[in-house]
Specification:
This protein has 250 residues and is an alpha+beta fold. It has a domain of 104 residues: Beta Barrel (Lipocalin). The protein contains five helices and nine strands. Strands 2-3-4-5-6-7-8-9 form an eight-stranded antiparallel beta barrel. A hairpin with a 2-residue loop joins strand 5 and strand 6. The longest helix is centred in the middle third of the chain and has 33 residues. This is Serine/threonine protein kinase. Keywords: Membrane, Transmembrane, Transmembrane helix.
C-alpha cells in the first residue's frame, strides 16, 4: 500500500535519542570541611531520642542603658534620643490670633465699665445705709396735721417782695396753736384778712387767704425754716402773680 509504505519510511527515518553521559564522580576532597552538629547520636543501638540544644545567650551590649534597635522605629525612639519637653511643646502651640485677643480685651473693658457703673449707682445707697435710720425729727416734720402746730404759734412780721412788679410791702400774721385759722394784716394797704387751714404738716401749712380790697385774696404757703423763720409765699391760682418773703417771730 503506498500510504503504509510512506508511514513506514517516515518512522524509520526519526533519529534515535543519544544516551546522556554518566554523571561525573564527585570528589569529596574538593569541598571544604564544614562544622557538624552532633544532634543525633552515632550509636544506632541507643534509644532514638531527640537531641537537645543548649540555649545560647546573646552577648550583652556594653551600654546596657541603650535599647536595642527595633526596625521601623525612628532614631529618637531607638536610641533614647532627646525628646521635646512639655514647655517646648507649649511654646510651639499656635498663638492666639489678633481677633481673639481683641475679643478678650473688649470683654474685659465691658466688664470693667459695668462694675464701675454699678459701683457709682450703689455707692450712694450703701453710704446712706451706713448713716443709719432717718432722723425721727424729719419724719415728724412730714406728719400731716389738721390744726395749727405749736411751732407756728405767735405773731410773725416781715417784708415780702413782688418780683414781677418790683414792689415790696410789710406783712404780719398771727397763729394760735390748735386752731384752724389765722389773721393776716397788710399795714401799708390797711388790709385785714383771714388765713384758713386747707392742709398741712408739722413743718408746712397751706392756707387760703380771704382779704378785702385793695389787697387780693389767694393761696398762701407758710413753711418753717431751719433757722426758725417762716417762709411766706402768696400766689393766685390760674395766674403768674405772686410774692413772698421771710417772717420772724416777735
Amino acid at each position: 500500500m503506498p500510504l503504509l509504505a510512506k508511514l513506514t519510511r517516515s518512522r524509520r527515518s526519526r533519529p534515535e535519542p543519544e544516551p546522556e553521559p554518566p554523571a561525573a564522580d564527585l570528589d569529596p576532597s574538593a569541598f571544604e570541611a564544614t562544622a557538624t552538629f552532633h544532634a543525633v547520636s552515632g550509636e544506632r543501638g541507643a534509644s532514638d531520642q531527640t537531641a537537645k540544644f543548649d540555649a545560647v545567650d546573646l552577648e550583652d551590649h556594653p551600654n546596657s542603658t541603650e535599647p536595642h534597635i527595633i526596625p521601623g522605629l525612628g532614631h529618637g525612639r531607638d536610641t533614647g534620643g532627646h525628646r521635646p519637653s512639655p514647655l517646648s511643646s507649649l511654646a510651639k502651640m499656635r498663638r492666639p490670633s489678633n481677633h481673639v485677643l481683641g475679643l478678650a480685651l473688649s470683654l474685659f473693658i465691658g466688664v470693667s465699665v459695668g462694675i464701675a457703673i454699678i459701683a457709682l449707682v450703689l455707692w450712694p445707697q450703701l453710704k446712706a445705709d451706713d448713716n443709719g435710720p432717718p432722723d425721727s425729727t424729719n419724719s415728724s416734720n412730714n406728719r400731716p396735721v389738721t390744726t395749727i402746730p405749736a411751732s407756728f404759734a405767735g405773731t410773725w412780721n416781715g417784708t415780702v417782695v413782688n418780683t414781677n412788679r418790683n414792689a415790696s410791702f410789710p406783712v404780719q400774721i398771727t397763729f394760735e396753736a390748735g386752731g384752724t385759722t389765722g389773721r393776716a394784716v397788710y399795714p401799708r394797704e390797711k388790709c385785714n384778712g383771714t388765713l384758713r387751714l386747707a392742709r398741712g404738716t408739722e413743718s408746712a401749712l397751706k392756707m387760703n387767704l380771704e382779704i378785702g380790697k385793695p389787697c387780693t385774696s389767694g393761696t398762701v404757703q407758710i413753711t418753717r425754716q431751719p433757722d426758725g423763720t417762716l417762709q411766706y409765699t402768696w400766689s393766685r391760682p390760674g395766674t403768674s402773680l405772686g410774692y413772698g418773703g421771710k417772717l420772724t417771730r416777735g
